[in-house]
Amino acid sequence: MIKPANGRSRVVIEEIEPQVNAGRHPARRILGDEVTVRAAIFADGHDMVRAQLLYRHASERKWRTAPMTAGVNDAWSGSFPVDRLGMWRYSLLGWVDHFTTWVSDLRKRLAAQPVAAGAAGAGPQTARGDIPLALRTGAILLEHAAGLARGLEARKLREAVHRLTALADDARAFYEFPLSSDQVELAEKYPDRSLATQWEPELLVWVDRERARFSAWYELFPRSAAKDPGRHGTFADVEAQLPEIAAMGFDVLYLPPIHPIGRAFRKGKNNTVTAAPDDVGSPWAIGDIQAVKAPAHKNDNGGHKSIHPELGTFEDFEHLVNQTKTHGMEMALDIAFQCSPDHPWVKEHPEWFTIRPDGSIQYAENPPKRYQDIYPLNFESADWRGLWDELYSVFEFWIERGVRIFRVDNPHTKAMGFWEWCLGALRNKYPDTIFLAEAFTRPHPMYWLAKVGFTQSYTYFTWRNTKYELTSYLEELARPPVSDFFRPNFWPNTPDILHKSLQDGGRPAFMIRLFLAATLAANYGMYGPAFELCESAPATPAPGKTESEEYLNSEKYEIRQRDRNAPGSLVPLIAAINRIRREHAALQQNETLWFHGTDNPQLLCYSKTAAQGTLLMVVNLDPVYDQSGWTDLDLVALNLEPAESYVVEDLLTETRYTWRGPRNYVALRPGLQAAHVLRIVRGV
Amino acid sequence: MIKPANGRSRVVIEEIEPQVNAGRHPARRILGDEVTVRAAIFADGHDMVRAQLLYRHASERKWRTAPMTAGVNDAWSGSFPVDRLGMWRYSLLGWVDHFTTWVSDLRKRLAAQPVAAGAAGAGPQTARGDIPLALRTGAILLEHAAGLARGLEARKLREAVHRLTALADDARAFYEFPLSSDQVELAEKYPDRSLATQWEPELLVWVDRERARFSAWYELFPRSAAKDPGRHGTFADVEAQLPEIAAMGFDVLYLPPIHPIGRAFRKGKNNTVTAAPDDVGSPWAIGDIQAVKAPAHKNDNGGHKSIHPELGTFEDFEHLVNQTKTHGMEMALDIAFQCSPDHPWVKEHPEWFTIRPDGSIQYAENPPKRYQDIYPLNFESADWRGLWDELYSVFEFWIERGVRIFRVDNPHTKAMGFWEWCLGALRNKYPDTIFLAEAFTRPHPMYWLAKVGFTQSYTYFTWRNTKYELTSYLEELARPPVSDFFRPNFWPNTPDILHKSLQDGGRPAFMIRLFLAATLAANYGMYGPAFELCESAPATPAPGKTESEEYLNSEKYEIRQRDRNAPGSLVPLIAAINRIRREHAALQQNETLWFHGTDNPQLLCYSKTAAQGTLLMVVNLDPVYDQSGWTDLDLVALNLEPAESYVVEDLLTETRYTWRGPRNYVALRPGLQAAHVLRIVRGV
Q1: pLDDT at residue A115, rounded to an integer
Q2: Are A502 and A660 in contact (CB under 8 A)?
Q3: Mind listing the pLDDT tens digit for each residue in B26-71?
Q4: CA–CA dist B303, B639 (Å, integer)
Q5: 0.90 cut: is pTM over it?
Q6: Nearest CA to CA, how far is A403 from chain B (Å)?
Q7: Using CA atoms, how far apart are residues A145 and A186, in angstroms rounded to an integer?
Q8: What sections of B310-429 are H helices per DSSP?
Q9: DSSP-H helix ranges across A364-499
């Protein structure tokens, strides 16, 4: 219901974009972006409406303003720049503008005067006295503007008032438009907004740094990083690999959990229920520093605030963090909020777990399957505030040690309200932090985690393989509303997922999936060196199953030392693709992704565009057979004329082709040249 | 940000439908409807979620509940009946249900037991002690339910507690599921909702009576209703026509403004600027009872609360209102909030108008055109509250005289905030009122007027003539979100609009547009007897224009006496179509409208469905040539099997055809049989 105080405000504002869940969550943008705001703004009747965009960083008190411009049918748009990380607020202001209405009406009145200056009286359409009266109305409006202005501007406006009044007093047979364009502009600078409508509640935009939108992740197990056969790898061994990883062109080096690994119910190789004495266990079963039977580090806090002693010390860790930066990359840590029975929280805070009727702590289970090595946290705990604070402090502990990027394990099994609070508080204090959600769950929880604060998310990419699947999924991800809150990170493999297409398709399939991940999504990642080496042997399927997406001899349960530069390695292709991604802004965002037709269902064709230029990708989705066909390019999307000839240059092979119009022939060979990434060279 | 008190609530609710502008406005439904509510409801992890729909009439304090049922991917739905006019409120409640999770888990545990009852110990998947422990957990959950129940139900639940405890104490080698389905159902009746999430803020549904959704309007000028040539018609003359109008099958008899017509600047015949002394003027130029130089009626209030004396007295009016009801119809009055210079408000409340610098009142103008017979109200008046109250009282004045339906003239030239307040207050007090907005304006203001309270609206139907135009427009109107707040009323003609298609197409075009209006939209109307008589002569185009949509010798400015039963009249066709509309529920709503293909762009094919049956319409849009072609019916939408034969019966001609599958031949002749309205007869 309208509040009585607003009874004279005639402007309506609705359909504002961007808005996530009707403003409950912020839209996401990147530092330096221009945030475009669209809305429907209108009033009753025929008076002219004006509108302004109000915006400010959340830390600022005063609104800044930007103009809104009207399009057809009451659709308005405007934009504001975001030059600072963190939360921004915006709103809209709309008002009936009597001055611009008056200018427009006066011009029509003047145009309707009899043309001959000497003609007696006004024309048939304009009554005698209409124009002098209108001039007096204008004088009142300008006087009001003068009251809002100061100094020279106020004096200039008062001069206009005098001019209008004098003209009205000196009734003439013919009038010219009485104001200079400077005077009109000046009056428009001081609109009467006393009856303006302001949108409530304020809307939010969260601004991240560039890496939130554009990043290439490389995951490795530090314990496998040693060169000496059989030795447990250390942070120092990871450091030794940094030049190679940086040379491949990655931005983010992501390590699975580096905390002590629990002893109780430790899993053996290939996820067997009983571990051999020398089995290293899963890094995701987080235990206590005591349990690993090694002397505790100085300042060790146990559990999630500890380092597995065989990896190194806190000093070693911080050295690696800094060395990673030296190589132009950042380190990402894996935060997995679950505990092995050894974990100090189990002893110190049993109230944070579910207690069974016999007083024991409930382990993870999916009846009848039991995961006794893992105790899940109970987010319905009566001491939920204590639990939340402790989990928050885990992130802060590692932030204080130089980490700004976190990959969060299974966030969809922790309470959504916790994430909203925790990520909100962390991002508010450390707005340069980035959180990747391992949200392999149903669509609603996956998107909700993004809405409540995760910066990037794993996706269904791994299970989207056909042209239809990829097209429809990317159309969903790259467009609002999803693109306003969800930043996909595409992984062709992870330590948990070796998709059937890779198992069956081998090296050519790895090349296809690499190409798709790196060019469809601005954020992508891989688990290496398993990926470079195209490891494709799956684990034995579980009883009753015919397939497994797990790796055989999974690195999750044992040390796997490998040479990523072995014959057949994809390192050169990865380096080439990452170089192209860095050199071409088109691949550094998803919003301009556009699919083009082809006459072959195995050929996927799409483009991405930046101010710098457009890239056009064509991929053969078939890992076995050569595929050829004709493109059906959307020339409008590519900004090409219908009959225009143009050169396309394949950035992978440096080959140039002369193309013309929408239909061009393409032939691609699996394993050799499975895809084109074409730079469109104009003006041939 | 999550409120700390909600920290333990794990359920998220989003994407609730219906919602109009994120809950700012109510969704609209009809008395007796079942309101279906959909939402995404989910929690972290794998526990089972339950949800309830909360609903109540706004006058009630206590929520009623209805179950919500889960579909795929966290999509839930439920419904509640609305058995009372006015505002309803609803919300959703979701919680993690530990009891149903426990039942599901226990069944899995039991299924994994060794099959042989005599086998020692538990099976390989289930540890010894798992089941007794689970039974103890169940006892705790049932005890909680027992605490919420009373009397017999509580006793039954406690019996179940005892049984589970006894079974757990008496550790067995093999267990059956220990609860009866009655016990499970009873426990589910008393869920633990202490950590439930309730959606806020509450959402709204406004419930109208049936006529809001389904109505046939007939507009006539009472002053033309006399049989004696030249005499000014009266309410009594309208009464004499009621049997004829009722026989045509209309529900609503709509009269243009019945108030005194202003004398000052009165328009002459064909909208000429100067009226002859005997010109009757436009009923939309509302003046004072004094100005018409007739003795005032008793209790006359002037202006919008007066009756034009030549039409009759208040007693005559109320008699007509009652007689209209006797004939199964309702009267609708036209409320036009504008004043002729004679209007009493001009003298009594000049502050409600715009005052020009010379102290005169601003007349309506679109420079250089001037409409000096009309003073628009100024909704920016400092006394806007006084103005709002007075306008409100106009509606109430006529409501007190038995009128419940209003057609509001040009509502888009009055402040939107006023309508929101005025219609809100009126509908709250008189929930059986219906307001039709003559909102011939841009899409946003048109829809906004519906959102803030208009029950029905004029539309762009008149200007949608081709198959593409009709299909795309109706797809917009008949589906959410538009159908949740906007009820279209289709008019093939009005006193202001004689569309070019009728001017050019003559009688066959009138038949087509009648058929389309009456079968595409559940609400439709016509301006008669101009429509029945297919009057198609347009006024002289305005200077500089080549076309006019005004009528020649428009009834807006003069009395036009006609015999609606003259040769060639459409009265029989109108009566037939209105009869079909009344007999077939399919035509009494728009939500089931479904377009089917045809291979001829001049043949429009669509269906509407109700529990009673499906009607299939095929219209030849060409008023000149015979058109024939093949349908491409969506058999799924029609609930027909692919190869099924079925009989379709044309309700206009009573002809029956045997059809089969999607492709059937249709041939339609303009003027003779321009359309089929086919009842599908199943089971042939």
Answers
A1: 64
A2: no
A3: 999 999 999 999 999 999 999 999 999 999 999 999 999 999 999 9
A4: 56
A5: yes
A6: 25
A7: 8
A8: 314-326, 344-348, 384-399, 416-429
A9: 384-399, 416-429, 443-451, 467-477
Distance of alpha carbon B342 from alpha carbon A659, whole angstroms: 75
Cβ-contact B570, B511 below 8 angstroms: yes
Q: Which letter, b or e, does each residue of B547-565 get, where b requires 16 or more Cβ atoms within 10 Å of its Cβ?
A: eebbbeebbbbbbbbbebe
**DSSP string spanning B299-315?**
T---GGG---GGG--HH
B543 upstream amide cis, omega within 30 of 0:
no
**Is the N-terminal amide bond of B481 cis, ω within 30° of 0?**
yes
Catalytic residue among B288, B300, B342, B409: B409
Question: Rounded distance, CA B323 to CA B312, Å?
Answer: 15
Q: What is the ipTM of this complex?
A: 0.95
Q: How far apart are CA A53 and CA A37, in angstroms?
A: 8
pLDDT digits (tens, 9 = 90+) for B107-148: 999 998 876 544 444 444 455 568 999 999 999 999 999 999
**Which of the four pLDDT bands, split at 50, 70 and 90, describes residue A6?**
confident
Q: DSSP letters along A561-618, please?
A: ---TTSTT-SHHHHHHHHHHHHH-GGGG-STT-EEEEESSTTEEEEEEEETTEEEEEE
Q: Nearest Cα to B586, choosing from B549, B639, B537?
A: B639
Strands B405-408 and B434-437: what pairing? parallel
Query: Using CA atoms, how far apart are residues A341 and B374, in angstroms rounded to an integer?
Result: 85
Is A368 within 8 Å of B424 when comparing Cβ atoms?
no
Contacts of B338 in chain A (CB under 8 A): none
Give percent of chain A with pLDDT exceeding 70. Answer: 95
Quick one: pLDDT at residue B212? 98
Q: Is the dihedral of CA A221, A222, A228, A231 positive or negative?
A: negative
Helix (H, G, I), strand (E, B) or coil at B86: strand
Two tokens, residue A116: 């001959």
CA count, 13 A, side-chain hemisphere, A152: 1
**Half-sphere exposure for A148 (CA within 13 Å, toward CB):** 13
- Quote the pLDDT of residue B295: 54
Who's near B529: CB < 8 A, 6+ residues apart?
B220, B562, B563, B564, B569
pLDDT at A454: 98
DSSP single-letter state for residue B540: P
- Chain B CB contacts of A424 below 8 Å: 1
Give exposure, B68-82, as e/b (b: 16+ Cβ within 10 Å).
Answer: beeeeebbbbbbbeb
Chain segment A269-310, per-residue pLDDT in tens: 999 999 999 999 999 999 987 655 555 555 566 799 999 999
Minimum distance, in Å, between the CA of residue A596 and any CA atom of chain B: 26
- Residue B18, preceding peptide bond in cis (omega within 30° of 0): yes
- Give chain B's radius of gyration (CA, Å): 32
Q: Which of A46, A128, A416, A426 to mutate to test the interface with B (most CBs of B within 10 A)?
A: A416
Tokens of A416: 């959504």
Number of helices (H) and strands (E) in chain B: give both, helices first: 14, 30
Residues of B in contact with A384 (CB under 8 A): 7-8
Phi, psi at A231, each rounded to 5°: -80, 140
What's the whole-number mean pLDDT along residues B260-271?
Answer: 92
Enumerate residues 6+ apart whose C-beta is below 8 A from A392: A422, A425, A426
| B409 catalytic per annotation | yes
Residue in chain B nearest A125 by alpha carbon: B368
Question: What average pLDDT is seen over chain A?
Answer: 94
| Site of tokens 């554009």 | A214
DSSP calls for B444-505 = HHHHHHHHTT-SEE--SGGG--SHHHHHHHHHHHTSTTGGGT--BEE-S-BTTB--HHHHHH
* pLDDT for residue A221 is more than 70: yes
Residue B289 scores a pLDDT above 90: no
